[in-house]
Automatic annotation (TrEMBL):
Identification of the protein by name: Major facilitator family transporter
Record organism: Clostridium perfringens (strain SM101 / Type A)
Membrane spanning residue stretches: 7-24, 44-64, 76-93, 99-125, 132-152, 164-183, 203-221, 244-262, 274-292, 298-319, 326-348, 360-380
Gene Ontology CC: plasma membrane
Membrane topology classification: Multi-pass membrane protein
Length: 391
C-alpha cells in the first residue's frame, strides 16, 4: 500500500475513533437520572463526577502530548484505546458509586489520550484541505454524540441496563484496537522552539486570557447541554429518557450538520466576527426554548446549529494569531477551557440542588453570552492578524 492510501486508512480510523469517543463521553447525560436513582446520589454528587472526569481529561491531555512527543502518536493511540476498553469492561461490572466514579474517570483519561493523538497527527496525514478535514473530524464527534444519545436513550427506555451497553461498546473498542495495530501512522518530529513562552508570560497576555475564558465558557455550554439537558427535561417536565434522549440526539445531529458545513462559511465570512454572532443566536434560541417550557425543547435542540463551529474555529485561529509558541499556547487554552468547564459543572450541580433544574439550566445560555462577549473582544484585537478576516 502506498503512502497516500495509508494516510487515507489512517484518517478513516481517526474519524471512527472520534465517533466512538463521543459515544462514550457524551452519553453520560442519558444515564444521569439512572445513576441518581440506582446509587442514591444527588445532582451535587453527579457534578463532582463530571468535574473529576474533566480533570482526568485535562491532565491526560498534557501528559498525552508529552507521550506523543516521546513515543509517537500510534503508541499513544493504542494505549488510549486499551485504557478505554478496560474502563468500559470495568463499568459493565459496577456494583457501587465508587466503581462508577473510578470507571468514568479512567475512561475520560483514555479518551484524552486518543483526542490529543488525533489533533497532533492530523496535520501530517492531511497535507491539503486541513481546515475541511479538521471540521469533518470534529463533525464525526458530533455524529457519535447524536448516535450515542439516540441509541442509548432508546435502549434505556426499553429497559436495557447501562452496564450491558458499556460492555458491548467496550468490545467495539477492542476490535478497533486490534485493527489499528496494523495501521501505519507517520511519526512527527518535534522541533524545539527557541525563546519558549513561560506560563507567566502567557497569563500576562490579555488575548491569551480572553482565549482561555471564551473557549472555556463555550466548552461548558456544550458540555452543559450534553450532561444536563436530559436531567432538566426529566425533572422539569417529567419527560421520559427515550423522548429526552431524542431531543438531545437531535441537538447533536443538527450540531454535526453545522460543523460539516460551517467551516465553509467561516472561510468566506471571517472567524471571530462570525463566532460572537452565532453564539448570541444560539443562546437566544436556548433561552426561548426554556421560556416556552415543554414545547420549547426542540428549539434548544436547534441551537446546536449555531454552537457547532465554535470549538474548531477558535482553536484554528490560534495558529493564525500567534507566530511562535503555537503548540504551547494551544495547550494552555484547551487545558484552561477544561478547567472553566469543571468549575461551571460544579456550579450547575449546586444550583440544581438549591434552586432546581428548571432555573439552574439558565446558566448554560448565560455562559454562551459571556463567551460571545469575549469572542467580540478577540475580534477587535485580532482582526488585523487574521488573513481570512472579513467584516
Amino acid at each position: 500500500m502506498n503512502s497516500k492510501k495509508q494516510n487515507y486508512v489512517a484518517l478513516a480510523f481517526l474519524f471512527i475513533m472520534m465517533i466512538l469517543a463521543a459515544i462514550v463521553e457524551n452519553t453520560k447525560g442519558i444515564f444521569i437520572p439512572v445513576f441518581k436513582q440506582e446509587f442514591g446520589v444527588n445532582d451535587n454528587t453527579i457534578s463532582n463526577l463530571l468535574i473529576s472526569t474533566s480533570a482526568a481529561y485535562m491532565v491526560l491531555t498534557f501528559i498525552g502530548g508529552m507521550l506523543c512527543e516521546k513515543f509517537g502518536q500510534k503508541k499513544v493511540f493504542l494505549a488510549g484505546l486499551m485504557v478505554i476498553f478496560l474502563s468500559l469492561i470495568f463499568l459493565s461490572f459496577t456494583k457501587n458509586y465508587l466503581m462508577l466514579y473510578t470507571g468514568m474517570v479512567i475512561s475520560s483519561a483514555g479518551i484524552a489520550m486518543v483526542a490529543i493523538s488525533c489533533n497532533t497527527v492530523l496535520p501530517i496525514l492531511a497535507l491539503t484541505a486541513q481546515n475541511v478535514i479538521m471540521n469533518v473530524m470534529h463533525a464525526c464527534y458530533g455524529l457519535g454524540s447524536s448516535i450515542g444519545q439516540g441509541l442509548f436513550g432508546s435502549l434505556t427506555a426499553r429497559g436495557v441496563n447501562w452496564r450491558t451497553m458499556y460492555f458491548f461498546v467496550g468490545l467495539v473498542y477492542l476490535a478497533v484496537f486490534i485493527c489499528f495495530i496494523f495501521v501505519k501512522i507517520p511519526r512527527t518530529e518535534i522541533v524545539k522552539e527557541k525563546d519558549k513562552m513561560t506560563i507567566i508570560e502567557a497569563l500576562s497576555n490579555k488575548v491569551i486570557v480572553a482565549y482561555m475564558l471564551a473557549l472555556g465558557l463555550y466548552v461548558f455550554t456544550e458540555q452543559g447541554i450534553s450532561n444536563w439537558f436530559v436531567n432538566y427535561m426529566k425533572y422539569g417536565y417529567n419527560i421520559n429518557e427515550q423522548k429526552a434522549g431524542m431531543y438531545l440526539s437531535l441537538f447533536f445531529a443538527i450540531f454535526t450538520i453545522g460543523r460539516l458545513f460551517g467551516g465553509f462559511v467561516v472561510e468566506k465570512r471571517g472567524y471571530f466576527n462570525i463566532l460572537y454572532k452565532t453564539l448570541i443566536i444560539g443562546a437566544a434560541l436556548c433561552i426561548l426554548g426554556l421560556l416556552l417550557g415543554r414545547n420549547g425543547m426542540v428549539i434548544i435542540s436547534v441551537s446546536g446549529l449555531f454552537f457547532s463551529i465554535t470549538f474548531p474555529t477558535t482553536v484554528l485561529t490560534i495558529s493564525k494569531v500567534f507566530d511562535k509558541n503555537v503548540a504551547y499556547i494551544t495547550g494552555i487554552v484547551i487545558t484552561s477551557a477544561s478547567l472553566v468547564g469543571m468549575i461551571l459543572n460544579k456550579a450547575i450541580g449546586l444550583l440544581n440542588e438549591s434552586v432546581g433544574p428548571d432555573k439552574a439550566f439558565y446558566i448554560i445560555p448565560a455562559s454562551a453570552i459571556l463567551s460571545a462577549i469575549l469572542m467580540f473582544y478577540l475580534y477587535l484585537n485580532t482582526k488585523k492578524r487574521l488573513v481570512k478576516q472579513k467584516i
